[in-house]
Amino acid sequence: MTSLPSIAELRTKTQPPGLLERRSGEHWAGRLYMRRISPYATRVLAAWGLAPNQVTGLMIVAGIAAGFAVLLPGLPGALLAAVLVQLYLLLDCSDGELARWTGKTSVTGKYLDRVGHYLCEAALLVGLGFRAAELEANGYAVLGLAAALGAVLIKSETDLVDIARVQSGLPAVTEDAAEPRSPRLASLRRVALVLKFYRIILAIELSLIIVLAAVVDALTDSLVATQVLTVTVAVVAAVQVVLHLVSVLVSRRLG
């Protein structure tokens, strides 16, 4: 058995300078705590002989499982979903670190990573809708499905920028290009970034809010908090689909 790398060696090679400063590519939870933990998980995964794409597969399983876990009634289901989302985030950090350590970065890995993000966020929103609907096919279930569709569309709007640029022979988009051309719209975008209301439909934030809603539901012996949250995420998703599309069109991302 080959000797395993030290945590210091892993950090040096798998967390290059600038990684934690990627505001558009690194989640706040990664910067705050998960990147401090992930090298330990990466070391274990390397010891098990797992390939980076296999770890990505485990990430996808954890994300989808969170969507099913939230269907479990009461606080236990919400807590299990939150734990699974944290595992999803941990594996999301570790698959890239393992790829950089082993030199097995690939287009397939990047593709699977994107698919995982789509599936996890959609699964959690669908699960939330059916949780609010008490597993019945009523209006709350429809709102959960609508919110999931909105989350997928928002990610598609981002990814389609790269597709449009590649098909037009343009280089990859830079973070600076996201700034709107109009100073007034740029100011509004900065306000939106400060408020971060759109984060409510992202899996990590949403899983924690679901736990809070479950606590309120337990105290009130109802599902009112979960149902209010379901309506809220559907509205936010619908608004964000439009705002994100407009932000792409008025920025320099398309050239």
Protein model, in words:
It contains nine helices and no strands. It is mostly helical. The protein has a single domain, classed as Up-down Bundle (Four Helix Bundle (Hemerythrin (Met), subunit A)), CATH 1.20.120. The protein starts with 6 loop residues before the first helix and ends in a 6-residue tail after the last helix.
Structural class: mainly alpha
H/E series, N to C?
A: HHHHHHHHH
CATH-derived architecture:
Up-down Bundle
Distance between the termini: 51 Å
- Here the CATH topology equals Four Helix Bundle (Hemerythrin (Met), subunit A)
Name given to the CATH homologous superfamily: CDP-alcohol phosphotransferase transmembrane (TM) domain
Mean pLDDT across residues: 88
Low-confidence stretches: none
Topology:
Blueprint: H1 7-14, H2 28-47, H3 52-69, H4 74-102, H5 107-132, H6 139-167, H7 183-195, H8 203-220, H9 224-249
Helix pairs in contact: 1-2, 2-4, 3-4, 3-5, 4-5, 4-8, 5-6, 5-8, 5-9, 6-9, 8-9
Features:
255 residues, Four Helix Bundle (Hemerythrin (Met), subunit A), 9 helices
Gist?
This protein is mainly alpha-helical and 255 residues long.
